[in-house]
Amino acid sequence: MIEPLTQGGAQDALTRCLSLILQEDDRWHAMLAINPQAEAEAEAADHAAAQGQGLGPLHGVVLAIKDNIDVAGMATTSGCKALARAMVPGDAPVVARLRAAGAVVVGKTNLSEFSFEIRSRSSLGGDVRCPFAPDSTAGGSSGGSAVAVARGFAMAALGTDTGGSIRIPAACNGLVGLRPAHGMLSLEGVAPLAPSTDTIGPITRSVADARLLYEIMGGQIGGNAAPRRVGVVRQAFGEDARILAACDQALERLARGGIELVDPLTLPGVEDLLAGPHIVDAEFGAAFDAYLAGRASTGNAPASLAELVTGGAFLPDHRESLTKRMAISPDAAPPILARHRELTAMLRAVMAQHRLDALFYPTMRVIPEGLGNPPGGWAPELAARSGWPAISVPVAAPGERPVGAELLVPARQEAALFALAAMLERP
Question: In the chain, what are the domains?
Fold first, then answer.
């Protein structure tokens, strides 16, 4: 569990992290940039501890930040060559809160360029590879953040999640990934993908650490901390025997903890409700264009999405997506959001009918093989489109490829989410 570091601990911890990055990251491609002030920040943290000053809950703790989130003194690139020198004036508010609690930022992590995919491939950093299967993707879009934690480059990391981008790489790398309720945490200083579903959250080694960072970032814990009933959404499980076995073992842990399982639970019409145009297609063009325009005064970056595309300094894989999304009118969003509300109403009705505190399903229905986009399934979209909080917890046995199980609860029921997630953790 993360604890404040004292008596020279901050510099020692940072030295270990930097050493590992130097030794290993040419294999994994998790990091895009090292914070030039990291060593000075760690030295200041140790000096404060030696002077007996009051220490925050993250004093000296080394964090990595996904490179679509602002960190003072560094560029925010979204993984794109065109933004490699896009310096920012200060920290995003969530980063400022973590630093105020004593955290030391080691650097910025690689990602899927513009956060478009569920692999992590960028024009600046290439493919983030999974340490458990080096020929496979680490998942995305926050893959660099997940690998940074998995390999000890940082003690925890921040990612963003629009349709699974925290939870999927956490699942691929044996970590905990928290997607807070939509709107719970500030997105100021964060590059947008689809503002109606964008969130920011932590990737950690434990549920307790995820909760700690979430609260420091400004998250609230609401609802009942003594959940009793969980619905098992077998529709989302897929056919991978490793995932099925790991999830069944996780469900046994919930049952031993006194949780009554409604298994199987059917979500009527769920795949039809998830079909059709995606909100990212409708919102990205206008949102990212406004984001670039708002940063034009900082210089060294395109002032618009059209200028970025004309310049050609981005991953060629994304030319078609960028061109398509630039052309879509924002008027396309309202009917898509109406479908989101229909999905949320269905989820509420099913949970009320069965008196459920949470839903359970695997974070991904496959274990990625290769560097392409894995067919991960629709389950992560339940949280994205409802706006409800969700958490992915590693449930595979030690020595096996990681598998994540996801829990979803209604908004303002975070106490149940964390209580159930703690039951899923292996001892």
Answer: 9-216 (3.90.1300.10)
